[in-house]
Hints:
Belongs to the small GTPase superfamily. Arf family. Keywords: GTP-binding, Magnesium, Membrane, Metal-binding, Nucleotide-binding, Signal, Transmembrane, Transmembrane helix. GTP binds at residues 13-20, 65, 123-126. It is found in: Membrane. This is ADP-ribosylation factor-like protein 6. It is a single chain. With 175 residues, the protein is α/β, with parallel strands linked by helices. It has one domain (6-26, 41-174): 3-Layer(aba) Sandwich (Rossmann fold), CATH 3.40.50.300. The protein has 5 helices and 6 strands. The longest helix is centred in the middle third of the chain and has 13 residues, at 95-107. The chain starts with 5 loop residues before the first strand and ends with a helix. The model is unreliable at 40-44 (pLDDT under 50). The protein binds guanosine-5'-diphosphate. The site of guanosine-5'-diphosphate (GDP) has 16 residues, from helix 1.
Amino acid sequence: GRGRTDVTVLVLGLDNSGKTTLLAALRPPDPRPHDPRPHAAPTVGHSVDHFTSGGVSFSAWDVSGAARHRALWERHYRAAHAIIFVVDSADHLRLVVAREELELLVSHPDMCGRRLPLLVLANKSDAPHALAPMQVAAALGLERITDKPWHICASCALSGAGLADGVAWLARQVR
Length: 175
Ligand code: GDP
């Protein structure tokens, strides 16, 4: 690892993959109910969330999957220490689009060749007909990503299942 304890993580993925929901699930309970922190409401541009795992404090930039916002989120690439890429495992048709997005991301001049840990969340694992993580990995062509340590795990952002394990992997990569 690199001994980092403050980590900026980009959260990317197509719209409707579950980014907003999983960031809400990772968010620590708000100790000040009358002073709620701003919510990561339907993603436009970006918003920042915070969570911790394994002694690492994460600042998560939820960057929209909408192509029209690409210029916005590309500005954050250079500041990122890690990436979470969220996929709807039950949306078989759009896996092809997700693969194209991921390829654009990892081949971007500000990303290519950097050893940023990449956590892929095969989200909506609870949905009927959800693909298993290995099938999602194959559909995304993850085996072709050789310049970054990557890890895929199944998650359900609604229940939080799988999120802690995935984020713990990220924490181990950066520490
Ligand atoms: P975003 O556009 O990537 O931020 O996606 P959202 O977090 O807004 O989620 C899109 C929709 O998928 C919402 O209706 C969520 O309730 C639903 N959703 C998110 N995660 C899961 C999941 O793990 N399982 C199921 N069944 N639905 C999910």
